[in-house]
Design goal:
single chain, about 425 residues, alpha/beta, Molybdenum Cofactor Biosythetic Enzyme, Chain A, Molybdopterin biosynthesis moea protein, domain 2, Molybdopterin biosynthesis moeA protein, domain 3, six-stranded mixed beta sheet, 26 strands, about 30% strand, binds adenosine monophosphate, binds magnesium ion
């Protein structure tokens, strides 16, 4: 029996990252970026206005106030999408909209709210713009650069704006679009073969006869595979005989990795091992010091990693979360492959013997900025109900024993339980 940490190390040493493919950026949502992305231009490309207002020379409006406004002559109207034809000279302003490039001569923008339309008397007849007031009262002085978005203040030409290994979210897609990249290299999605084993299993559509149960693991495992961004390939149910197991496993070799469930308990495993050996498989380990999930087996068949998860539904799901998930994420090229653990306080004591790492299904609550973890009733490795109710797994290290209420523990989130709640979070 090896530790969880040692098992993880052995597994990851056998996992290779898959190759890449080019996809349109919207199809890249949730995929892992396969290249560093450099910007090919500054953003913003030029100095522009951050406000609707007036582009001015700060020298002209020194000490301007509500009581003593400075009146400037409006020489042009500049909407977003156009460049100014004129430059701003002493005593002049250009009406400017958010996003329009700064006109020459101006060194600040005064927002509309700090101005008022003005009559400008004695101006030459060409001073006013048709349909516009000819002048503007400025009520506030400004500093050079006020309300200007500087060229390159977001990022500069040549900057690496996205890094290889990042998971692509809407923000990354927005960035790719902003720099004019309609396509991007992402890692291939791993195909993971899923095999259930057991004479007792029937398909979901069947009514189980006495002694039989529905194969639920294939569904739960396939869903876990999908949640990692990989593609499950269903191999169905292999009966507990050499021939059937061999046939199904061989088909599984068309995938990038095989995940089976069942047939790894003491006794059973000799037969599975025989089949695997016959297929040229090299076993790396069998049995991990964890609860649930102890009889986990891992080997390599024809260069493909193969996980033999325990048959009990919770054992298989928990072992998947600890080992198969990081392995799949490594295949996808993801940089950070381990789930973050959070600290929480226990609301109830937990009984434990030293010698195995325990993963306890628990509900999470947050009060005054503190997480509280409540172990759920029904921790049996076949009990799905508590798995459904669980927001997280409490992780109790191998060497600790009974643990008291109010103790600090680490919790590993399951699904979105730690991310969502029944009321707004502010
Ligand atoms: P095994 O590891 O094959 O001895 O299975 C351990 C327990 O898990 C037994 O009670 C099995 O019936 C159950 N089990 C095995 N495979 C599945 C499966 N695919 N779906 C649901 N339960 C299973
Ligand atoms: Mg079995």
């Amino acid at each position: 029996m090896i530790s969880v940490e040692a098992a993880l190390e052995i597994i990851l040493s056998e996992i290779k990252t898959l190759g890449m493919e080019r996809v349109d950026i919207l199809s890249a949502l949730g995929r892992v970026l396969g290249e560093d992305i450099a910007a090919a231009a500054d953003n913003p490309p030029w100095d522009n206005s951050a406000m609707d207002g007036y582009a001015v020379r700060t020298a002209d409006i020194k000490e301007a106030s509500k009581e003593k406004p400075v009146i400037l002559q409006i020489i042009e109207d500049l909407p977003a999408g156009y460049t100014a034809k004129k430059s701003v000279k002493k005593g002049e302003a250009i009406r400017i909209m958010t996003g329009a490039p700064m006109p020459m001569g101006a060194d600040a923008v005064v927002m509309v709210e700090e101005t008022e339309k003005a009559e400008v008397k004695g101006l030459p007849s060409n001073a006013s713009i048709e349909g516009q007031e000819s002048g503007v009262k400025i009520f506030k002085e400004a500093k050079t650069g006020d309300n200007i978005r500087r060229a390159g203040e977001d990022f500069k030409n040549g900057d690496i704006v996205l890094t290889k290994g990042a998971t692509i979210r809407p923000a990354e897609i927005g960035m790719l679009a902003a720099i004019g990249k309609p396509n991007v290299y992402v890692h291939q999605r791993p195909k993971i073969a899923v095999l259930a084993t057991g004479d007792e299993l029937v398909e979901i559509e069947e009514t189980p006869a006495n002694g039989k149960i529905i194969n639920s693991n294939s569904y739960a495992i396939s869903a876990q595979i999908k949640a990692c961004g990989a593609i499950p390939v269903q191999l169905g149910i292999a009966r507990d005989n050499k021939k059937d197991l061999e046939k199904k496993l061989e088909f599984g070799l068309t995938a990038d990795c095989i995940v089976s469930s069942g047939g790894v308990s003491v006794g059973d495993f000799d037969f599975v091992k025989d089949v695997l050996k016959g297929m040229g498989s090299e076993m790396r380990f069998w049995k991990v010091a964890m609860k649930p999930g102890k009889p986990l087996a891992f080997g390599v068949i024809a260069n493909k990693p193969a996980f033999g998860l325990p048959g009990n539904p919770i054992s298989s799901m928990v072992a998947f979360e600890q080992f198969v998930r990081p392995a799949i994420l490594k295949m996808t090229g993801k940089k950070d492959i381990f789930k973050r653990a959070f600290e929480a306080l226990l609301t109830k004591p937990i009984k434990k013997k030293s010698g195995r790492m325990h993963f306890v299904r628990a509900a999470i609550e947050q009060k005054n900025g503190q997480f509280y973890a409540t172990p759920l009733e029904g921790q049996g490795s076949g009990m799905l109900r508590s798995m459904v109710k669980a927001d997280c797994l409490i992780i109790l290290p191998e060497n600790i024993q009974d643990i008291e209420k109010d103790c600090k523990v680490k919790v590993q989130p399951l699904g979105e339980g730690l991310l969502y709640q029944d009321k707004p979070g502010y």
